[in-house]
Structure formats: structure tokens, C-alpha cells
């Protein structure tokens, strides 16, 4: 069967393409913007990528079109599909019907940490010899690929609360019917489709309603929004993490790189790994709890942490030259920015930390998080905020309220020139964006190598 995917370079849709190909389908796809890491991965896997949404991409007509949630009415490819009567579906529905049916689905939901926690859970299962399938909204470095079918009933899926398609406004995760559900955290996000936090809580409760009574729901004890979700009605056993929860961590290193794992008051072991930050420790606890639900002992899981490598674009170190380190991070929400910078700061001590941030997400563009942005960078030494074209509000207020030196830039090459020139041994630089950011990652890497190599 020939499947054509509209919006194929999105992290979810690109992963879906890999699964469809592994099921034996011929897969092609188109997208407005083709950029790494998904474009690189798809091309390496032999999947045809077409730039733009020209209806000619679907002539002759494919057997089925999978329409990404970034597509809307008025898009020429969408209009062509509707006019020609070509069969179509959403990505989550296709996944549920063709991959997840009859699997033990382990879903990782939450505002933050979905990609890392999904990668971590898949790795713990892999290390235990359980060969899981997975679909992750990024490229986990332990696997080098964002999705695979797997050889056992277990399937780990990153469960996004964003809507499924222009014709299906339910959250993606409602399709997945997990037996093991991780609810990592819950804050207001996606202001383009949700009016308030209560609307997102309602979608999370739809997810809770789908978990069987023989399943397990895992969530942080102190997360009030998630507690409200559970209080709406829950028919499934729950385990909690964090302070006051069933699963707790006691830090043995301030940066979170070494910690004890406790379950119901009993010490399970000591974890030592390459990740840093309190948020990373929280991710580890939920992944350990989920893995235990399918038979991985806490001791096995703790041992696996030592071999875990973070997914690409999640504090991924791009280079380290003459004691100047450059990182790439996907953070696109004030809480994610704050926790990521806090983790790095705990790891590097008082070294100079330059953050370069592009407020690119739909919620950022609408200005919904504007008030929280300035305090989110408190752990940086200095910040450069990139004002992308189409940002509907000014960053001047963020600069004025910044707790550290900050400035706005509109020229990527100018940012590269300034940062490369100002960097010196001991400097740590982190680029934060959920998009390609005009190729700044490679530009800055090359400029630093040229100046300091």
C-alpha cells in the first residue's frame, strides 16, 4: 500500500513513517520545512521527502493519506485530498489501528519531559532484554532511530495532548489506550488550541478513562493539576513519585547525577548516570515505576540508567573544544527553560553560561508565557533572545525584567559572530528552540571551531 504523509517532518509524523515502512508499506511525504533531525533520519531510511504541499505530489493518488495536525483547511494538499475523495486518516488513529492493537502500550504524557522519559523507558526495557517497540518525538541516541515496531508485546509511545487533526480535535493520546500510563506533569501550554489549564486537564482525564483497571497510572505526588485530573474519577491503581510519593529519590550529588531510589520506604539502589537536574531525576523515577509494571526490577532499571544517552536535541552536546562547550536543547516553555538551565548550572558550577533562545512555539508566539520568560533564565550568566519573524509581541518587557544581562537579536549571523567572538575557555553555550532556528547550531559550531580550534 502507498501511504503519503502530509507534515512528515514533524517529530510524530516522521516516526510514524518509519513504522509504516517497517510494516511493508511504500511511504512518501511532504512538508513545508524539511530540517534535521527528522529529515536526516527519514532520508537515511530511504523515505521520499517532498518540499511544499503541491497536489502533484499525490498524482498518481496514494492508497491512503495520513494528515498531520499542522494541516488545516485551505492547504492545497488537504483541499486536493478532499476534492478527489482520496482516503485519509489522522496519525494517531492510524497508529492505534495498525500498530498499537493487541500491544501492551506504555504511554508517556505531560507538558515536559515526554521525549526524554519515553526514551528512558524504552532503554530500560531494552537493557532488560524486552526489545520494546516505540514511537518517540525525537531521536533517542541509544537507538539512533525515533520509532521501531519491536519484537515483543511492549510498545512505548510519547503521548501528546495536542489535537489529532483538523477533523479530530481530541488529544492524540486518547487514541492509544495504554495499559501503563505516565503523567509526567501538567501546566498550561498550547494556547493556540486550549483556552485554559482546565481544558487540558479535561483531555488528560479522557486519557485516564481509557486505562484499564488492570493497568497502572504513575504521576508526581505534588503535581496539583494532575491530582485534580485523578480526582475527576479514576478506575486504575496509581503510584506516585517525588516528595511524599511511593517512589522517591535522595540526591547524593547536587546536580542529580547520583541519587538513591526508594520505593515505599525501602532503598532499591543507587543510580549514577550522565544526566543532570531535578527534572531528570523525576523522569528517572517515573520510568523506573513504569518498567517495574512490566516486570523489570528496580535494581535492573537503576543499573540501566548508567548506559542512558539523552535524545538528540535534549541537552545534546554538539561540541567541546578548548573547554568551550555547545549544547542544543528543545526547551520551548518557561518551566523547561528554567529546569534545563538549573540542571546545567548545577553541573558546571560558576562557569559562564550563555543561553540563546528562540520563542518559537505557538504558545510562545501568542505571548501566553510572556510574564514567565524573564525569571526562567535566572541560572544563565547572560541571554540572547532571538525575535523571529511573525512574533506577535515585543521582547522588550522580557529584557527589562531579566534577572541577568539580556538582549534581543534579529540577525542569526550576528548572534553567531558575537557569541563565537566572546567565548573563552570555560564558557558553556546552550541554544534553545523547538525548530531549526535558521541553522544556527551548525553555524555557531563552525564559527567556534574556526576561532578556537
TrEMBL record:
Necessary cofactors: Mg(2+)
Keyword Cell division: yes
A molecular-function term among this protein's GO annotations: ligase activity
Residue stretches making up the Mur ligase C-terminal domain: 313-435
Pathway the protein acts in: Cell wall biogenesis; peptidoglycan recycling
Pfam families the record matches: Mur_ligase (PF01225), Mur_ligase_C (PF02875), Mur_ligase_M (PF08245)
UniProt keyword terms in alphabetical order: ATP-binding, Cell cycle, Cell division, Cell shape, Cell wall biogenesis/degradation, Ligase, Magnesium, Nucleotide-binding, Peptidoglycan synthesis
Record Gene3D superfamilies: Mur ligase, C-terminal domain, Mur-like, catalytic domain, NAD(P)-binding Rossmann-like Domain
Keyword Magnesium in record: yes
Enzyme class: ligase
List of residues binding ATP: 110-116
Domain Mur ligase N-terminal catalytic residues, every copy: 2-101
Residue ranges constituting the Mur ligase central domain according to the UniProt record: 108-291
Annotated EC: 6.3.2.45
Catalytic activity of the protein: UDP-N-acetyl-alpha-D-muramate + L-alanyl-gamma-D-glutamyl-meso-2,6-diaminopimelate + ATP = UDP-N-acetyl-alpha-D-muramoyl-L-alanyl-gamma-D-glutamyl-meso-2,6-diaminopimelate + ADP + phosphate + H(+)
HAMAP family for this protein: Mpl
Homology family: Belongs to the MurCDEF family. Mpl subfamily.
Function: Reutilizes the intact tripeptide L-alanyl-gamma-D-glutamyl-meso-diaminopimelate by linking it to UDP-N-acetylmuramate.
Name of the protein in question: UDP-N-acetylmuramate--L-alanyl-gamma-D-glutamyl-meso-2,6-diaminoheptandioate ligase
Species this chain originates from: Halopseudomonas pertucinogena
Encoding gene (name): mpl
Amino acid at each position: 500500500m502507498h501511504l503519503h504523509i502530509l507534515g512528515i517532518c514533524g517529530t510524530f509524523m516522521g516516526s510514524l513513517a518509519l513504522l509504516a515502512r517497517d510494516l511493508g508499506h511504500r511511504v512518501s511525504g511532504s512538508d513545508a520545512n524539511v530540517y534535521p533531525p527528522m529529515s536526516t533520519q527519514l532520508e537515511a531510511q530511504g523515505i521520499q521527502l517532498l518540499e511544499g504541499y503541491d497536489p502533484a505530489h499525490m498524482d498518481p493518488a496514494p492508497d491512503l493519506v495520513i494528515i498531520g495536525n499542522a494541516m488545516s483547511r485551505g492547504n492545497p494538499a488537504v483541499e486536493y485530498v478532499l476534492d478527489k475523495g482520496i482516503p485519509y486518516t489522522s496519525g494517531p488513529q492510524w497508529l492505534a489501528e495498525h500498530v498499537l492493537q493487541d500491544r501492551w502500550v506504555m504511554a508517556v504524557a505531560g507538558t515536559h519531559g515526554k521525549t526524554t522519559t519515553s526514551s528512558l523507558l524504552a532503554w530500560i526495557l531494552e537493557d532488560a532484554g524486552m526489545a520494546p517497540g516505540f514511537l518517540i518525538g525525537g531521536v533517542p541516541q541509544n537507538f539512533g532511530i525515533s520509532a521501531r515496531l519491536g519484537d515483543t508485546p511492549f510498545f512505548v509511545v510519547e503521548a501528546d495532548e495536542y489535537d489529532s487533526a483538523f477533523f479530530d480535535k481530541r488529544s492524540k493520546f486518547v487514541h492509544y489506550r495504554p495499559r501503563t500510563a505516565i503523567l509526567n506533569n501538567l501546566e498550561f501550554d498550547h494556547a493556540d488550541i486550549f483556552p485554559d489549564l482546565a481544558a487540558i486537564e479535561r483531555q488528560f482525564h479522557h486519557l485516564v478513562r481509557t486505562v484499564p483497571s488492570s493497568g497502572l497510572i504513575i504521576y508526581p505526588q505534588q503535581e496539583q493539576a494532575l491530582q485534580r485530573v485523578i480526582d475527576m474519577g479514576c478506575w486504575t491503581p496509581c503510584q506516585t513519585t517525588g516528595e511524599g510519593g511511593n517512589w522517591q529519590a535522595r540526591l547524593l550529588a547536587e546536580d542529580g547525577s547520583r541519587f538513591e531510589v526508594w520505593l515505599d520506604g525501602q532503598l532499591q539502589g543507587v543510580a549514577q548516570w550522565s544526566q543532570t537536574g531535578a527534572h531528570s531525576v523525576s523522569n528517572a523515577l517515573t520510568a523506573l515505576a513504569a518498567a517495574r509494571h512490566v516486570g523489570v526490577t528496580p535494581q535492573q532499571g537503576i543499573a540501566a540508567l548508567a548506559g542512558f544517552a539523552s535524545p538528540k536535541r535534549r541537552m545534546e552536546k554538539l561540541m567541546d573544544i578548548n573547554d568551550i562547550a555547545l549544547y542544543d536543547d528543545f526547551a520551548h516553555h518557561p518551566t523547561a527553560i528554567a529546569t534545563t538551565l538549573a540542571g546545567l548550572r548545577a553541573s558546571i558550577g560558576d562557569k559562564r553560561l550563555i543561553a540563546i533562545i528562540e520563542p518559537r512555539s505557538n504558545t510562545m508566539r501568542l505571548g501566553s508565557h510572556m510574564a514567565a520568560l524573564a525569571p526562567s533564565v535566572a541560572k544563565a550568566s547572560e541571554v540572547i533572545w532571538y525575535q523571529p519573524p511573525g512574533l506577535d509581541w515585543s521582547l522588550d518587557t522580557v529584557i527589562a525584567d531579566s534577572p541577568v544581562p539580556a538582549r534581543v537579536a534579529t540577525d542569526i549571523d550576528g548572534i553567531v559572530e558575537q557569541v563565537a567572538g566572546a567565548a573563552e575557555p570555560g564558557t558553556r553555550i546552550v541554544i534553545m528552540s523547538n525548530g531549526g532556528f535558521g541553522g544556527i547550531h551548525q553555524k555557531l559550531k563552525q564559527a567556534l571551531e574556526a576561532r578556537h580550534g
